[in-house]
Amino acid sequence: MPHRVFRLLTVAWVGSQFTIGYAVAPVLFGSLDRMTAGAVAAQLFRIEAVLGVVCGMLLLALGNVLVRRGADSYRQLRWLLAGMLLCVLIGYFALQPFMNALRIAAMDAGTDVGHSAYAGRFGMLHGVSSLFYLIQSLFGVVLVWKLPIALGSTSARDVRAASQTGKVAG
Asked: Helices 119-146 and 96-108: crossing angle, nearest 10°?
Protein backbone atom coordinates (compact mmCIF):
# COMPACT_ATOMS: atom_id res chain seq x y z
CA MET A 1 0.00 0.00 0.00
CA PRO A 2 2.73 2.63 0.74
CA HIS A 3 4.12 2.27 -2.78
CA ARG A 4 0.68 3.08 -4.21
CA VAL A 5 0.45 6.24 -2.09
CA PHE A 6 3.97 7.14 -3.24
CA ARG A 7 2.94 6.73 -6.89
CA LEU A 8 -0.28 8.70 -6.39
CA LEU A 9 1.51 11.65 -4.73
CA THR A 10 4.22 11.58 -7.40
CA VAL A 11 1.86 11.72 -10.36
CA ALA A 12 -0.32 14.33 -8.65
CA TRP A 13 2.70 16.59 -8.08
CA VAL A 14 4.41 16.09 -11.43
CA GLY A 15 1.12 16.13 -13.34
CA SER A 16 -0.03 19.37 -11.74
CA GLN A 17 3.35 20.93 -12.38
CA PHE A 18 3.17 20.11 -16.09
CA THR A 19 -0.47 21.16 -16.33
CA ILE A 20 0.03 24.56 -14.68
CA GLY A 21 3.44 25.41 -16.15
CA TYR A 22 3.18 24.09 -19.66
CA ALA A 23 -0.55 24.14 -20.46
CA VAL A 24 -2.48 26.60 -18.30
CA ALA A 25 0.05 29.46 -18.07
CA PRO A 26 0.65 29.65 -21.84
CA VAL A 27 -3.10 29.63 -22.47
CA LEU A 28 -3.58 32.45 -19.94
CA PHE A 29 -0.94 34.62 -21.59
CA GLY A 30 -2.31 33.79 -25.03
CA SER A 31 -5.90 34.70 -24.23
CA LEU A 32 -5.82 37.43 -21.55
CA ASP A 33 -4.07 40.76 -21.26
CA ARG A 34 -0.59 40.48 -19.77
CA MET A 35 -1.48 42.00 -16.36
CA THR A 36 -4.50 39.76 -15.79
CA ALA A 37 -2.71 36.66 -17.06
CA GLY A 38 0.25 37.43 -14.79
CA ALA A 39 -1.98 37.86 -11.75
CA VAL A 40 -3.84 34.59 -12.38
CA ALA A 41 -0.63 32.71 -13.19
CA ALA A 42 0.99 34.03 -10.00
CA GLN A 43 -1.87 32.61 -7.93
CA LEU A 44 -1.66 29.26 -9.74
CA PHE A 45 2.10 29.05 -9.27
CA ARG A 46 1.65 29.87 -5.56
CA ILE A 47 -0.77 26.96 -5.22
CA GLU A 48 1.62 24.75 -7.20
CA ALA A 49 4.53 25.72 -4.94
CA VAL A 50 2.60 24.87 -1.77
CA LEU A 51 1.48 21.59 -3.34
CA GLY A 52 5.11 20.90 -4.26
CA VAL A 53 6.36 21.45 -0.72
CA VAL A 54 3.60 19.29 0.79
CA CYS A 55 4.02 16.48 -1.75
CA GLY A 56 7.81 16.71 -1.56
CA MET A 57 7.88 16.39 2.21
CA LEU A 58 5.34 13.56 2.23
CA LEU A 59 7.18 11.71 -0.54
CA LEU A 60 10.53 12.05 1.22
CA ALA A 61 9.04 10.69 4.44
CA LEU A 62 7.27 7.88 2.62
CA GLY A 63 10.43 7.08 0.65
CA ASN A 64 12.34 6.74 3.91
CA VAL A 65 9.68 4.38 5.26
CA LEU A 66 9.84 2.26 2.12
CA VAL A 67 13.65 2.08 2.20
CA ARG A 68 13.57 1.05 5.89
CA ARG A 69 11.13 -1.70 4.91
CA GLY A 70 13.64 -3.03 2.39
CA ALA A 71 12.47 -1.43 -0.88
CA ASP A 72 15.95 -0.37 -2.00
CA SER A 73 14.69 0.89 -5.36
CA TYR A 74 13.35 3.97 -3.54
CA ARG A 75 16.84 5.03 -2.38
CA GLN A 76 17.80 7.01 -5.47
CA LEU A 77 14.27 8.40 -5.84
CA ARG A 78 14.77 10.29 -2.60
CA TRP A 79 17.59 12.27 -4.25
CA LEU A 80 15.31 13.23 -7.14
CA LEU A 81 12.65 14.29 -4.64
CA ALA A 82 15.17 16.36 -2.71
CA GLY A 83 16.23 18.03 -5.96
CA MET A 84 12.63 18.80 -6.90
CA LEU A 85 11.91 20.17 -3.44
CA LEU A 86 15.03 22.34 -3.56
CA CYS A 87 13.93 23.71 -6.93
CA VAL A 88 10.53 24.67 -5.47
CA LEU A 89 12.10 26.31 -2.44
CA ILE A 90 14.58 28.34 -4.48
CA GLY A 91 12.47 28.96 -7.56
CA TYR A 92 9.36 30.05 -5.77
CA PHE A 93 9.98 30.84 -2.12
CA ALA A 94 13.39 32.50 -2.58
CA LEU A 95 12.98 34.29 -5.93
CA GLN A 96 9.26 35.08 -5.97
CA PRO A 97 9.37 37.60 -3.07
CA PHE A 98 11.94 39.65 -5.00
CA MET A 99 9.78 39.50 -8.13
CA ASN A 100 6.72 40.58 -6.15
CA ALA A 101 8.65 43.49 -4.63
CA LEU A 102 9.61 44.67 -8.12
CA ARG A 103 6.02 44.28 -9.29
CA ILE A 104 4.74 46.34 -6.34
CA ALA A 105 7.41 49.02 -6.85
CA ALA A 106 6.37 49.32 -10.49
CA MET A 107 2.69 49.59 -9.51
CA ASP A 108 3.57 52.30 -6.98
CA ALA A 109 5.30 54.15 -9.83
CA GLY A 110 2.07 53.92 -11.83
CA THR A 111 3.03 51.30 -14.41
CA ASP A 112 3.30 47.58 -14.86
CA VAL A 113 6.61 45.88 -14.23
CA GLY A 114 7.19 45.21 -17.93
CA HIS A 115 7.24 48.92 -18.71
CA SER A 116 9.07 50.07 -15.59
CA ALA A 117 12.66 50.70 -14.63
CA TYR A 118 12.53 47.29 -12.94
CA ALA A 119 11.80 45.35 -16.13
CA GLY A 120 15.38 44.14 -16.59
CA ARG A 121 15.76 42.84 -13.05
CA PHE A 122 12.30 41.30 -13.13
CA GLY A 123 13.07 39.58 -16.44
CA MET A 124 16.32 38.17 -15.08
CA LEU A 125 14.63 36.85 -11.93
CA HIS A 126 11.78 35.44 -14.00
CA GLY A 127 14.29 33.66 -16.24
CA VAL A 128 16.12 32.15 -13.26
CA SER A 129 12.81 31.10 -11.71
CA SER A 130 11.76 29.52 -15.02
CA LEU A 131 15.06 27.65 -15.17
CA PHE A 132 14.44 26.16 -11.72
CA TYR A 133 10.93 25.19 -12.85
CA LEU A 134 12.37 23.47 -15.93
CA ILE A 135 14.96 21.60 -13.85
CA GLN A 136 12.24 20.56 -11.42
CA SER A 137 10.16 19.35 -14.39
CA LEU A 138 13.04 17.27 -15.71
CA PHE A 139 13.59 15.76 -12.26
CA GLY A 140 9.86 15.00 -12.22
CA VAL A 141 10.03 13.17 -15.56
CA VAL A 142 12.96 11.08 -14.33
CA LEU A 143 11.13 10.39 -11.05
CA VAL A 144 8.01 9.13 -12.84
CA TRP A 145 10.14 7.13 -15.28
CA LYS A 146 12.05 5.42 -12.47
CA LEU A 147 9.07 4.66 -10.25
CA PRO A 148 9.34 1.02 -9.25
CA ILE A 149 6.66 -1.39 -10.28
CA ALA A 150 5.92 -2.48 -6.74
CA LEU A 151 4.54 -5.73 -5.43
CA GLY A 152 3.70 -5.27 -1.78
CA SER A 153 6.58 -3.32 -0.30
CA THR A 154 9.18 -4.59 -2.75
CA SER A 155 9.75 -3.49 -6.31
CA ALA A 156 9.91 -5.65 -9.41
CA ARG A 157 13.68 -5.16 -9.45
CA ASP A 158 13.89 -6.46 -5.87
CA VAL A 159 11.75 -9.47 -6.87
CA ARG A 160 13.97 -10.20 -9.90
CA ALA A 161 17.08 -9.98 -7.73
CA ALA A 162 15.58 -12.34 -5.19
CA SER A 163 14.52 -14.82 -7.88
CA GLN A 164 18.01 -14.77 -9.41
CA THR A 165 19.55 -15.67 -6.08
CA GLY A 166 17.13 -18.54 -5.67
CA LYS A 167 14.77 -16.98 -3.14
CA VAL A 168 11.08 -17.36 -3.81
CA ALA A 169 9.12 -14.13 -3.83
CA GLY A 170 5.61 -14.31 -2.53
From this structure: 150
Is 142 a member of any domain?
Answer: yes
Task: Answer whether residue 44 is part of any domain.
Answer: yes
Question: Phi-psi category of 168—alpha, beta or left, where left has phi over 0 and alpha has psi -120 to 50?
Answer: beta
The total number of structural domains in the chain stands at: 1
> What pTM does this model have?
0.82
* pLDDT tens figures, 100-137: 999 899 989 988 888 889 999 999 999 999 999 999 99
Are residues 27 and 49 in contact, defined by beta-carbon separation less than 8 angstroms? Answer: no
| CA angle, 52 then 140 then 135, to 5° | 90
CB 136 within 8 A of CB 91: yes
